[in-house]
Amino acid sequence: MEEKILSVKNLTIVRNDHKILDDLSFDVAKGDTLAVIGPNGAGKTTLLKAILGLIPYVGQVTWGKDVKIGYVPQRLYLENDIPFTTKEFLELKHRGINEIKKALKSVGLGGEEISQKETEKHILENKISNLSGGELQRVLIAWSLLGNPNVLLFDEPTSGIDISGEDTVYTLLSELNKKAGLTIILVSHEIDVVRHFTSQVLCLNKEKVCYGPPQEVITQKTIDKLFGGETDYYHHNHKF
Q1: H helices of the chain, where?
Q2: Is the dihedral of CA 129, 131, 137, 138 positive or negative?
Q3: Given a cut of 50, is residue 149 above it in pLDDT?
Q4: Residue 170: exposed, middle, or buried by beta-carbon count in 10 A (0-12, 13-18, 19+)?
Q5: What phi, psi does 71 have (nearest 5°)?
Q6: 99-128 per-position pLDDT tens digit
Q7: Angle made by CA atoms 87, 88, 89, in degrees to the nearest 5
Q8: What is the DSSP secondary structure assignment for residue 206, as one 8-state letter?
């Protein structure tokens, strides 16, 4: 029997007499990659906040023993004149420079892809607001890896990144899942990512529409029921 790392039972969230999530139940096994999909306003980000304990809810959210969570939000808005360098930003987690460099290397910002010297000059010493969208997203993933979590949560990890950058980010997440054995929970709008990258999918529209292996539960009937006439569920050709 697979070891559960997260169990959600009868999760209900009501705000201003408006039901955001209704009686939601599902389990996540250790080492799974779970995608949460659904239309705008379906409660996807609210679900992440609830399982992180950031907002009140009714029901049960039970994490496995010794779980350490890393979280990357949907967007990080930075003013152009923000004074932080990448190094100063990552040091806010009170980690040493060696651990910071190791985290950057693990997301492809060091080691074989970019020399140590180039990493320190272009990434560590550069203002974080000057980084490209893909570089910033990698830095945020490195931020989430500081402290050696065993669960990573991502709210639309490729938001604001071009398609070529999306390929790189999803390849990186796949490697982290396979090589480090990390359990990953992510919100995504991309059907090819869900079908090829994730082991489980939760179809959500205020309540559970479907749950299970994507090859089994993502059908045209499910998509029609979940999204109706909406067009915010994207198809890209990602390579894994």
Answers
A1: 44-51, 86-90, 97-106, 116-118, 133-145, 163-180, 191-197, 214-217, 220-227
A2: negative
A3: yes
A4: buried
A5: -135, 130
A6: 998 888 888 786 554 555 666 667 888 888
A7: 90
A8: S
Helix, strand, coil tally for the chain in percent (to 5): 35, 25, 35
Integer Cα distance of 100 and 83 in angstroms: 19
4: exposed, middle or buried (Cβ count in 10 Å: 0-12, 13-18, 19+) = middle
State the distance between the two ends of the chain, measured CA to CA, in whole angstroms: 28
The residues spanned by each domain of the chain are 1-67+150-240, 78-148
Sequence-distant (6+) residues with CB within 8 A of 6 are 27, 28, 51, 61, 62, 63, 64, 67, 151, 183, 185
| CA distances from residue 240 to 193, 199, 210, 225 in whole angstroms, order as listed | 9, 14, 25, 28
Q: pTM of the prediction? A: 0.82
**Which tens digit of pLDDT belongs to each residue from 75-101?**
665 555 678 899 998 999 888 888 998
**Rounded (10°) angle between helices 133-145 and 163-180:** 20
d(CA 194, CA 217) in angstroms, rounded, equals 11
Q: Which residues contact 216 (CB under 8 A, 6 or more apart)?
A: none
- Average pLDDT on 49-58 reads 95
CATH of domain 1-67+150-240: 3.40.50.300
Q: Are strands 4-15 and 58-63 parallel, antiparallel or unpaired?
A: antiparallel
Find all residues with CB under 8 Å of 220, minimum gap 6, and list them. none
Using CA atoms, how far apart are residues 100 and 93, in angstroms rounded to an integer? 10
What are all long-range contacts of 175-178, with beta carbons under 8 Å and residues at least 24 apart?
176/106, 176/145, 176/152, 177/31, 177/33
